[in-house]
Design goal:
By secondary structure, the chain is mostly helical. The protein has helices at about 20-25, 30-45, 50-70, 75-100, 105-120; strands spanning about 5, 10. The radius of gyration is 28 Å and the shape is rod-shaped.
Length: about 120
């Protein structure tokens, strides 16, 4: 009599269980949520730079959504990454719009400021 037969899944010991193969193929990693969180934090940190935070914010939101698609749920890091990405996107977009609208005024103020410095240093 062969004692290697498993009565629970009708296969020999050591043979793969077809029901468990699908469960093993599903991703168990939080890599997308971790990348989303890192990119979201970096996008907020560098929000004063013109275009870099816009790209990083969109990538943070995208990775959070990809994590949701692969795992079927949002975890805390994916939610935090998406939130940081949205905040970074809002800050950098606001600063970009303000700089485009007020570029002429800023340029005039800088010329006036540096003109006063140059005239003050030349008169000494």
């Amino acid at each position: 009599m062969n004692n290697n037969f498993n009565m629970n899944n009708n296969s020999y010991y050591g043979a793969p269980d077809n029901n468990n193969l699908f469960m093993q193929m599903q991703p168990k990693s939080n890599a997308f949520s971790i990348v989303s969180l890192i990119l979201g934090i970096v996008s907020i940190t560098f929000s004063c730079i013109n275009y870099l935070p816009l790209v990083l914010s969109v990538l943070a939101i995208t990775f959070a959504v990809v994590h949701r698609v692969y795992t079927g749920r949002f975890n805390g890091m994916a939610i935090a990454g998406m939130t940081c990405g949205i905040i970074g996107l809002a800050i950098s977009a606001t600063l970009l719009i303000v700089s485009i609208v007020y570029i002429d005024k800023i340029e005039e103020l800088l010329k006036q400021y540096y003109g006063e410095i140059m005239s003050a240093s030349g008169s000494v």
